[in-house]
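Students often ask what a holo structure prediction actually looks like on paper. The answer is less mysterious than it sounds. You provide the chain, you provide the ligand, and the output is a string of discrete structure tokens encoding the 3D arrangement of the protein together with iron/sulfur cluster.
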Amino acid sequence: MKPKIRNIVDKAKAGKSIEAAEIKELLSWPALSEESFYTQFAAREMNRELNGGRAEIHGQVGVVTAACPCNCAFCSFAASNGIFKERSVQPLEEIMAQCRVLEQQGANAIYLMATANFPFNDFIRIAREVKSHLDKDSILVANIGDFGYQEAVALKEAGVAGIYHAVRLGEGQVTRIKVQRRLETMQAAHQAGLKLGTCLEPVGPEHSLDELVEKIVITRKVGAVFSGAARRIPIPNTELSRYGIVSEARMAQIVAVVNLATGYGIAGNCTHEPNVPGAMAGANVLWAESGANPRDTVEHTENSRGFDVARCRDIYREAETPVLEGPSLLYAPSHKTGSLGKVGT
Ligand code: SF4
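The corresponding structure tokens follow.
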């Protein structure tokens, strides 16, 4: 193995921040090279020292299918993709039932997801109801469009612990949203005391190493409780589907590089869709899904692409990764980025 790679990996393991050029070097090796496996082994070892090695399963319920004017080319809700033409909101009772199922199955956090054009006040009403029907300690997270400080405060008051938000690959080019707008939303969330989960996504085969590096660096700068890497699922017959899909082997390498780049300061490292190579490479947040899903073309992803909690648990078992029981540590009120440290080892 090249000494250069060993030096970069060992630097990250020693708790030092690696440079953008070093992140790029790690990414430049083939997925099945010795260098890649050394990177993945190191990432797994680093995560074994964080959170006592206990991985989390986060469950998401998509509350609406709609044609969204933001037109993110990778999303099945993009109006330009023409898949969902009518707005269809799940009845509140069904949303609550799906959240309860995820909770009872053992999801460590429950997310409510809505398209960017979903009325904010309607979302708050749903979030309040769901929160009041979950166990007292359950963690509720919002995955919605961009918002300002007032909305962030309203989310907090509704019992939401945090948000999932990302500056996506191709932001502003294959989406109608500016990078700055995404960052402002994250800032508003922080100001209101909401925690932030983020990710390098949606990774496609056409993305250059420089773009991957640029977005990885953003994920470690935005004060997130977890980062990670997720691949793009091609929506059939859409503009981006011609590029195909990144292999799980390559994604495992990328998720490991993200982990080394974010270091011990960010305890969580997610991957999506759930898979064993990613979990073996240190991913410690996997996703169960119900209802609407921007990677799916049906209204109820639990009948299609969506994984349930048991399937995520199986993936962790195959990867020999223990799973946290109880509410998410990443979104816990006491968790400040980096504060989970090397606990439980
Ligand atoms: S990713 Fe979000 S903002 Fe973009 S089209 Fe889909 S729902 Fe709209």
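The mean pLDDT is 95.
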